[in-house]
Amino acid sequence: MRKSLVVPALLLATPLLAACTENASDDDAASTDSARAFTVNASDDACEVSGGEAPAGTLTFDVTNTGSQVTEFYLLGDDGLRIVAEVENIGPNVSRKLTVNAVEGSYFTACKPGMKGDGIRGDFTVTPSDDEPEISATDQELVDQALTNYAAYVKDQTAQLLAKTEEFVALYKAGNQDDAARALYPDARTHWERTETVAESFGDLDPKMDLREADVEPGDEWTGWHKIEKDLWPAEAGKYKSLTPQERAFFADDLLANTVDLNDRVQTLTYTIDQVANGSRGLLEEVATGKVTGEEEFWSHTDLWDFQANVDGARVAFEGVEPIVRQNDAELADELAQRFDELQVLLDAQRVGDGFTLYTDLTQDEIKAFSDAVNALSEPLSRLTAAVV
Amino acid sequence: MSPQLSRRGLLGGGAAAAGVAGVFALGRLTEDAPGEDAARAASYAFHGEHQAGIVTPAQDRLHFAAFDVTTDDRDELVALLQDWTAAAARMTQGGAAGPVGPVDGAPNLPPDDTGEAIGLPPAGLTITFGFGPGLFRDQDGTDRFGLADRQPASLRTLPHFPADVLDPALSYGDLCVQACADDPQVAVHAIRNLARIAFGRAAVRWSQLGFGRTSSTSTAQDTPRNLFGFKDGTANLKAEETEALDQHVWVTAADDPASAWLAGGSYLVTRRINMTIEVWDRQPLADQELFVGRTKGEGGPLSGGDEFADFDFDAVTDTAPTIPVDAHVRLVHPDFNDGARMLRRGYNFVDGSTPLGALNAGLFFIAYVRDPDTGFIPVQNAMARSDALMEYLKVTGSALFAVPAGVREGEYVGQALFA
Question: What is the ipTM of this complex?
């Protein structure tokens, strides 16, 4: 296991995400600017935003929960992952206001009734404007915002991991739903892999949940995702004795219990800015050591799902600190953004339906190209931490 | 402390003195006068009319790497060559790869030098750069960097030769770096750091370690032996033969109108020649000598005389030629190849063993020629067709590069190509 990214810290309530680099002089103007003010009607099955486009500047969203479940409202980046701003814990019949300085670009809005899943999403476009917000925040404001957003991202991904793990273990325990379990396996693990370095910081949970068979120490019991992976994809295992229904239930319940534990723990985690930057680098190291080599998903060969998820997580962490990098080393910020793009082009070329090519179906040249692109990104990424502290 | 001092500064006086003695014995030095910083004298100038590492007395160790260029951007390619030039200029003088050095940088940054050469002398390190055909046109013939009209006619993938069983993963390349030194760690340090500098612009395609030179490139050097146990390179082109070098090694502007930029440079052929060592070792001594055409001990021609005696190819023993018609020295001799000569700079290699327990070993052949079409390909064909040694050889890697002229202060390697 790798060095801890996160030292689990004392409980510190995450402040409400009052997203941004407020441009005080524009505040009054923004609040009266109808082109930048929206209402959101968040019900149990809909997320109605009063518009889908705004000029760049300070935007406000008045979110009213008209449903019966506690909900959340997000403005997400064009990758659908990066949290630009969010309000959490909006109870039924409660209204909350989200203010965000948004630059030109494509976004998603999302309501999350029940605070679970991907949310009910809609497209949102920010058009160029003379009021394009300048990065005028102080370093400390940028740091605070990056940390708050990253904590929110980790919690969101872990919540989705928990929801999909619940579904996965139910399918697996059923005994007659293995095809569905196999289909869900790489999808559920995506949420693990996106924040893998955080999960790994819990030295007790990670080995119980994500250990590969080759890494089990003699005398220790092998549990977790990969134990189940082998049972679902026994073809590679040769003379493999399938797990009994009782064993299935044991390992499935164990995985779920540990996921619940993980989810509980990330609620109170706080981060430092170098941890976020190191996490980005750490995720690419995971790619270089486990995914490019096809070792992570030894039985299912779904390594590219994990690869993409590691890259997602690394990119979110980078983009979270990007405003700081831009102030300190704009050239590095440009280089990293370009290298992330180049790696993504290779991943996109391997998309098949909602998933990816199996690792075993990649040619040696394709694997070499992935390896080259990972090296190309990792080298400047190794300088990220020094550029944010 | 200057970065250059970070390696030398840790040198013990004894090691430095030994390094100096070694280089004096080789007879070629930088302009630095004897008596200056002792360790510095054990280095070769990076800048000059020709790149170092060609006529430089062959060092004992090699790390050779071929790269695929991964960027599409000509400016990034040029930036890579600039960065490589700066790093090579430092490392060949005993300095660090980067401007900061292995231990003097910020604690939260990876060092710009990897550090395994701390305390080691320059060890005669030379770093020589070359350009492969793929830099000019890709496999589909596309002009990658606006250089296609400058591709020399002779710079193309070598033709297939009999006994070639090439592994593409050990062949070809858009760029090459030859690092030679008298300390293997110094040579590996150079390639490792240059590869790191290249990430995102070029990626290592293959690399080869060599542990014992198989050619002498100076009359001051003893003739070494290859893994067949024979002296190799006795008749090699030597640094002292300046007229022959001009005739057989250095390209002139008039050689190829498309590639005047290569004037002062040369062509570099590499061939990874595996030897079936175990089978060879079972050959009787007399047969081994007949295959080669020289005696195994002294290394003199079978026709008589010491190592440097002239061959008498007309000599007859009983009714057969004393030097057989399929002897290696006869087939590759200039007299039978329109006078073609090359400057060889190969190294022995042993890359562990094969799954069957045989040595994965042989000769990593390196030759510098003025024109491969006349200086290498015909000789290689003659050898591959008829040479008695071919029974024991299997060529697994092959590449051809154009090596630009030397670098002047303030320039980067290959600058004339991009001018």
Answer: 0.80
